[in-house]
Design goal:
Blueprint lengths: L13 H9 L1 E6 L4 E3 L7 E16 L1 E7 L5 E2 L13 E14 H10 L1 H30 L5
Antiparallel strand pairs: 1-6, 2-6, 3-4, 3-5, 3-6
Helix pairs in contact: 2-3
Length: 147
């Protein structure tokens, strides 16, 4: 998988894409590896290359969102102002993941603000899809007949 073939980075000009690719680290993690914990400082953006990562939220109960598709972006909390992970990321099976340092990515976006804006818009789409899935999951668990 090439980074510019992912939905998230598609269409970025080659000069900027080369800068982004240069700051990426591809790493392999065994099953049950905790990539990050909820409420930790969000230092990295992650892209799933292969495997499965569960985004887990625990608050009385547990909700897990599995990520299984190559190119899925997670850890996007590093792209927002408070920069705190809102869930834990745990490998559900052996996985290969691309990790991108937040500070280095910010530096590239400061040099190329139009690319940063495009990525933020794409990030909004990722957030919207995940929120819609969470709503659907919640409703399927708690559905009652209307009054």
């Amino acid at each position: 998988m090439l980074l510019n073939e992912t939905e998230f980075f598609a269409g970025i000009d080659s000069e900027v894409m080369n800068k982004i690719t240069a700051i990426c680290q591809e790493e392999s993690y065994p099953k049950d590896t905790v990539l990050f914990k909820k409420d930790e400082d969000a230092k990295y953006l992650f892209i799933l290359k292969d495997g499965c990562v569960n985004l887990v939220i625990q608050n009385g109960g547990t909700m897990a969102t599995p990520l299984t598709e190559s190119g899925e972006v997670f850890g996007w909390s590093c792209m927002v102002e408070d920069g705190i992970y809102t869930a834990s990321g745990i490998c559900a099976k052996d996985s290969r993941i691309i990790k991108i340092d937040r500070d280095q990515l910010d530096e590239i976006f400061n040099q190329h603000p139009h690319i940063g804006l495009m990525i933020i818009k794409r990030l909004g789409a990722v957030f919207s899809r995940r929120l819609s899935c969470a709503y659907s999951d919640l409703l399927s668990c708690c559905w009652t007949e209307p009054l």
